[in-house]
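Listing S7. Sequence submitted for prediction.
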Amino acid sequence: MIALLVARWHEFSDLRTLADVRIERGSDRRQLTGVLLLKAPVSIRFEGLSPFGQPLLLMAIHEGQLTAYNVASHEAVVGPATAETAARLLSLPVEPEDLIGALAGRAVPPKDLRVAQILPADAQGPSVELIGALHRQRVWMDFATGIVHQIEITGGRLEAKVTYHRGLDGSLAGFDLWAAQGNVIGSVRYRNPVVGAGIDDERFRLTIPAGASIERLR
C-alpha cells in the first residue's frame, strides 16, 4: 500500500482550477472564489477574487518561501515555507509538501515512516495507518487504484481531517476540512479542474507591489 501511495503522489505534476472556498475559524466566517495553481513538488498559488473578478488576496509558496499579499490593505507577509508559518497564516501547521498533497487529493507518506499497517475497514471503508516521528496518518483509500477518499492526521500541534469529493471516475471535485479540534472547518469545491497540462514556474513567483507594508516571519 505504501508503494501505491508513493506512486500516486509521484505521478502528480500539476493542477489548475477555480476554487470555491468557505472557511470558519471560531466566529470568523469567510467565503470567496479564487484561482488555485499547484505544481509538484511544492509550488502553490492562490488568487482570491472579488465578485467582479479582481484579485483581492494573493498567496504563493515557491522555492521555499511563503508570500501573501492583501490588495485592499496593501499589506504583505513573507517568510520561509514551513509548518510554523503555515500555522500563523492558515491555522494549519503543515509542511508545504503535505499541503500540496492534500490540495491535490494525494496522501504523502511521512519521510520518517516508522510503522505502516492496514486497519480493519470501518464505515468509511478500508484504510492504512502511517506513523512517523511526529505525526500519525490514517488514509482511507481504494487499495486497487490508490485513490484517496479521506485523510486524518494527528500528532504534535496538528489534528486535521480531509474528506474528498470525487466524480464517478475518481476525479477530484473538492474536499471538506475539519481541524484544530473543530475550531477550523471549511470546504473547497473545484470548478473545471485541469490536471497535468503544465504550469510555468513564473506563475508561482509573487512580486509584492512597491510601497506595501511587509511583515517578515522567521
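Caption to Listing S7: primary sequence and predicted C-alpha cells for the chain studied. The chain has a mean pLDDT of 92. The CA atoms of residues 42 and 137 lie 20 Å apart.
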